[in-house]
Amino acid sequence: MDKISKSLVAFFVAFGLFSFSTSNASKEVTHTKKSVVATDTITWKLLGDIKYQKKTVKDYGEVEFPVVNTKLKTLSKKAVIISGFIIPIDSKNYAISKNVFAACFFCGKSGPETLAGIKFKGDLPKLKTDQYVTLKGTFRYNETDIEDWIYHIDNAEIISK
Q: I need a labelling partner for 38 at 20 to 30 A (CA). Which of 4, 19, 60, 112 fits?
């Protein structure tokens, strides 16, 4: 390559690198007083990291039982924070979901690991289907009862709506 070609290539490489960089000097920072919500302790990605083991159950035949990952087992009976969509189960029970109702596992779009049963601390709050909330509560998992949720959030409190 001749000297001019090398210079042109160097120019375009430098131009490309600097044109996509961000500059803090051009950003306007506005400080407002807002409540800060902690980062979720339990993510849907972590809850989705699950395996299943086939076992035969007298009344159901062959059933896939959940095998919860080690990280989640260490969070059992500990305070956690989780965000998701509210799914009413009946007049007294709610679940929190990774997805809105139309895409939750009841409709065949996901698996049972995308929901967690909620038991609220105190009075049952009024919540709407698909309302996005952040909850703080005690995490519990279930690997043995096929008629119950795999995941639970007990003593739940809404920390953000």
A: 112
